[in-house]
Amino acid sequence: MAASVAEYLVHQLVAAGVSRIYGIVGDSLNPVVDAVRRTDGITWVNVRHEEAAAFAAAGEAEMTGSLAVCAGSCGPGNLHLINGLYDANRSRLPVLAIASHIPSAEIGTQFFQETHPDRLFTEASVYSEMIGTAAQVPRVTRTAIQHALTAPGVAVLTLPGDVADQEIDDDGAPILIPGACPARVVPNAEDVAALAEAINDAKKVTLFVGAGARGAHDVVLELADLAAAPVGHSLRGKEVIQYDNPFDVGMSGLLGYGACQDAMEGADLLVLVGTDFPYTAFLPSDVRTAQIDIDASHLGRRTRLDLPVHGDVGETMRLLIPQIRRKRSRKFLDSMVKKHGGLMTKVVGAYTKNVEKTKPIHPEFAAVVLDEAAAEDAVFTVDTGMNNVWAARYLTPNGRRRVIGSFLHGSMANALPQAIGAAFADRDRQVVAMSGDGGLSMLLGELITLRHYDLPVKVVVFNNSSLGMIKLEMLVEGLPSHATDSPAVDYRQVALALDIPAVQVEDPKDLRKAMTDGLRRPGPALIEVLTDGNALSIPPSITSGQIRGFATAMTKQVLGGGMGEVMAMARSNLRNIPRP
């Protein structure tokens, strides 16, 4: 029995558990699209921009852990995929991209829309190959799927349209070999023993936990209890370790809060647990450091490393904990936890109290109201920028919620398309896209996708008519903000024009009802919150250089005639700082 290459490929995807392909139809991709039309168990999801297709596939893969697929037509079509694929690959998500290509006879002749996808996507993938003949398809496609699932990461198949139409012999043999269960990575016993000795000898131990500790929440906290260790976390580690954690001291880095930074700098042994935290300025260079990671290439590449342990976090804890002696003194732990509680109340919490009459609305207050109104198993997708800050500081994890973002690649406009993929993965679960007005405007057309498929995504727009994080970066560097503001846009009206229920909130006393009602609506909805464009986030550790940068920027602003803007910024960021 003969089938086309495109049909065989689609059957392979179905056998791998794929139920949809995100993309935009077009020319060289048409054989694949038609094969989807004729195949049971798989559908085509028509997005408005291929970048959104890649982000949506990544959002689905993040939710399910299974293979998700996106596709782009030749040349410009598949080039649009690259930003979302870069993000998915850095996040180690199992995504397969189909990059269709110009007719094979024209490759190398500077033909219309000619690019070389098999070369272009190499840096954004763990596997990238071109299919030149029908005979390649069974093994190359299977190999791509295996790479995506087991690396994990992005696999790219480049497929010329004429090859997609070729016939392939189908002898009825299984088209996909069964996937193996993930292997256990057990650390070397000598490395574990050395770490145990260091923990036992140290007077002050701090654990800093990342996303690599997923599934090991309880055993990491068991270690923290034995070692009397405060537990800080990275942004990706927040949903993994912060809930039900009496040892929590918050987060470090540019978005950080609480006592995490003090706990790391005050320790005499810092243990990095399943994290490849990239910001070396927030990792102490004068503290003895151990690192546990399943990927040996992560060991020591960010900061000093005295005790490397290559292994899965859970497997490492299983061997490590029996060797740890319970510490008698809990003074360091108690002092850091107490300090964290004070900072959360007096500094982080200060921006959310007594503000129900304050206009413009504090974005921190809006984040707290969202957190309180959202479902216990809500999925939050978070735009890069200031929304990362508000999510890090004010969303409450509980072991059931998910927080997804472009946390490693740092792309704008990720929240809405990732929410599309999350909603397709589970239509019965509340999905909330925490969008900035800058991010939403970049892929605004995907609101049409929400309406097209009636996806139950709630888009909460923090609209400050500004690129707030860029403004902060400029001020830290001593530059007055420039080109960071945008004209006021009524996103409520945009949503209503697309037949999406929407509300705009300007008065903080209306916020709670608007948030609660909007999240309860069936189908898509948009809640636009007009927030203070001068609200900035302050990192947990402020250097003298950053202070000089602020002062220099403010001086330049005043000398340039912007005294009113300087005073407005001061009022927005100083009025809630607690007084002694």
Automatic annotation (TrEMBL):
- Per UniProt, residues of the Thiamine pyrophosphate enzyme TPP-binding domain are 383-529
Task: Write out the entry's keywords from A to Z.
Answer: Pyruvate, Thiamine pyrophosphate
Record Gene3D superfamilies: 3.40.50.970, TPP-binding domain
Whether Ribonucleoprotein counts among this entry's keywords is no
Q: Which SUPFAM superfamilies match?
A: DHS-like NAD/FAD-binding domain, Thiamin diphosphate-binding fold (THDP-binding)
Give the Thiamine pyrophosphate enzyme N-terminal TPP-binding domain ranges.
5-115
Q: A Pfam family name for this chain?
A: TPP_enzyme_N
Q: Where is the Thiamine pyrophosphate enzyme central domain?
A: 192-319
Q: Quote the CDD domains the UniProt record gives.
A: TPP_POX, TPP_PYR_POX
GO MF annotation: an example: catalytic activity
Q: Which family does it belong to?
A: Belongs to the TPP enzyme family.
Question: In its UniProt entry, what is this protein called?
Answer: Pyruvate dehydrogenase
